[in-house]
Amino acid sequence: MAKSDAVGKVIHWYDKIGVAVVKLGKGLKVGDSIKVKHGDSEFGDEVSSIQLNHEPIKSGKKGDEVAIKLSQKASVGSEIHLA
Fold first, then answer.
1. Is residue 25 part of a domain?
2. What is the arithmetic mean of pLDDT over 50-78?
3. 43 burial type by CB count under 10 A (0-12 exposed, 13-18 middle, 19+ buried)
């Protein structure tokens, strides 16, 4: 089986504010087009903001746990891929 091309994985979801906490396996930056995949469901989105420790940043790197705002609910365990 091929190695996953995921940029990161959702480790927490804040329902009221529509924000996912993502553990990054690769770099991610504001403006990137992404796909959020969980099982058979997926949706596309654009990274409009990234926060690290409640501070806005322009990009996150491998190993960071960042918060990104999404337009739809992302379940814990969802994979984030570059679109």
1. yes
2. 97
3. middle
Spell 44-72 as b/e; 16+ CB within 10 A means b.
Answer: ebebeebeeeeeeeebbeeebebbbbbee
Nearest-CA neighbor of 20 among 3, 40, 2, 43? 43
Separation between Cα atoms, residue 4 and residue 39, nearest integer Å: 14
The total number of structural domains in the chain stands at 1
Res 2: pLDDT: 42
Q: How many residues does the chain have?
A: 83
Instruction: Give the pLDDT of residue 5.
Output: 83
CATH of the domain at 66: 2.40.30.10
